[in-house]
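Page 42, continued from yesterday. The earlier attempt failed because a stray header line got pasted into the input along with the sequence. Redoing it now with the clean sequence only.
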Amino acid sequence: MSYLSGKLLGYCGKVLYIDLSKGKTWVKELSEEEELMFIGGTGLAAKIICEEVDPSVNPFSPENTLVFMTGPLTGTYVPCTGRFAVAAKSPLTLGWGEAHSSGFWGIELKKAGFDGVVVKGSSKDPVYIYIKDSEVEIRDASKIWGKDTRETDKLVKQDIGDDRIKVACIGPAGEKLVRYACITVEPEPEGPRVAGRTGMGAVMGSKKLKAIAVKGSGSISMADPNRLRHLIRRLLPLIMSFPSTQIQAAYGTAGEVEVFYEYGDMPIRNFGLGAWEGIEKLTGENLAKTIVIKHRACYNCPIGCWRVVEVDGIKVRGPEYEAVASLGSTLLIDDPHIIAKANELCNRYGIDVISAGVTIAWAIECYEKGIITKDDTGGLELKWGDGELLLKLIKMIGEREGFGKLLGEGSRLASKTIGKGSEKYAMHVKGLEVPMHDPRAFKGMGLQYATSNRGACHLQGFVLRIEQGERMHDLKIYERVDRFAVKGKGRIVAIMQDWHEVLDSMIICKFLAIPPAHVAAMYSMVTGRKTLLPELLKAGARSFNLKRLFNLACGYSSKDDTLPERFLKEPLKEGGAAGQVVELEPMLKEYYEYRKWDQNGIPTGELLEELGLKEIGEKLLSKVR
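This time it went through. Structure tokens are written below.
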């Protein structure tokens, strides 16, 4: 059974709209032009948001629109394509917000006949949405409101009477508008997957939307499934030959702790140290010996980087690299059991582990320097290496209680509230806390953070792979790249950002490292339309520039394309990046020129014309202050 309504296969051709204020639902058809220009995922989400949302809107107001979007490869034979994207104006950055998750929720949505769900308005009372094929219900969630994500998953399934449905939900953090609350996907059993960054769970909470449950009985169309299957079989040995892939298969993403530490890339004590003996306890090998009990894989994945650990007698998802670093080395905590407990607490409350760890690190450093006192913390003593303090603070953040209310604002807004020079120790870009890769170790990552549309983001380009020695011939990156070099980084960062826009629109897991030309071939085999790589890259540039325009209309400017002072002026004294700072200005100049932006970081009219964004671009630029 196929729900295809357009000419391109791989798409359902329909987007479900739900207005919670009015209790109404309707369906919009996707045109072939929209599918080709924006592909899907965050590209298509950006198109919808930029057309339908006023950039000046309060992120917590009913006028903010929340978009869930799959891509043409979601649920196909292509490995690791159980993914979907979520986008809205972010309550954390006050600009473009997006997050991504794996699992089976996106696949079920496509089987139900929809490429995406657009949620408008807000409900007066708690509700959840139940989608079963073409039937859509807005159901009462008053008895579920206040429950953690694991409890929510169980209660929604019980209410519907089907334990096979897929649930995306929020925990107490999203309900209480913690600005970096996440959306938790399929938390039971041994889950969850998480759409983690930029506070999409808080937007969901502001709409009194507790969960979206989906069940589909349709099929996902592919134009040439036999050729696609044959191509994938030939590609698998190449995919599994990459050292990073082999490490992740053996030890999960935390398997790269030792590698990143040797580069001076892994953050220690709020990015203030370059070496620490506690790293030995945080390696993937040690986690395997101490807390990991088995590993699992996402949809159709040959790697299986997902680890299961046991916490207080319950089998739960183990900490990824980002959690090991943000809840571990960043806070000088080296106990794997504490980190696993903290990770599970974040998952139950629905809290982004990166923003939580970096915000807590900001608070501890400010306390150490006397900027924050016990009068601010409610009597709590903040200190490095205190695992019990970490667990207590996560609970306080999730409940928005006491000092946790301030920490739930994120490091940028919290530091503005405290003042007294505390802003210097807030490690964020555009309000989004810096992820677990120190840009002094990979300077291209510094430029990527500074220019990323959602703030400091390692996944919108992941340039450090190029700076580690990988070459992308399909993208015309032939040269070996010195990680400490500055020249040439503007071009490389822009190319990689555009390519990752393509991946986030398809939508496909980036750990696979499928060569770009093969991705284009897969897209052609799924959709039935011969599409070459340059056309996909142009779609990636279109998506990236559209998000840039939205941020400009939200009030951002070239002055915000920067990094925390620590990375620009304070070299580490030891470790693999000792003596290095990020020389951002020359990279930015090269980057702007390559992007065809003017000296103020604004896309030129020539570029907007070239990308087919003239009309919507001029509309957004008219709002630039």
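Notes: The longest strand covers residues 209-215.
Reminder to self: strip header lines before submitting.
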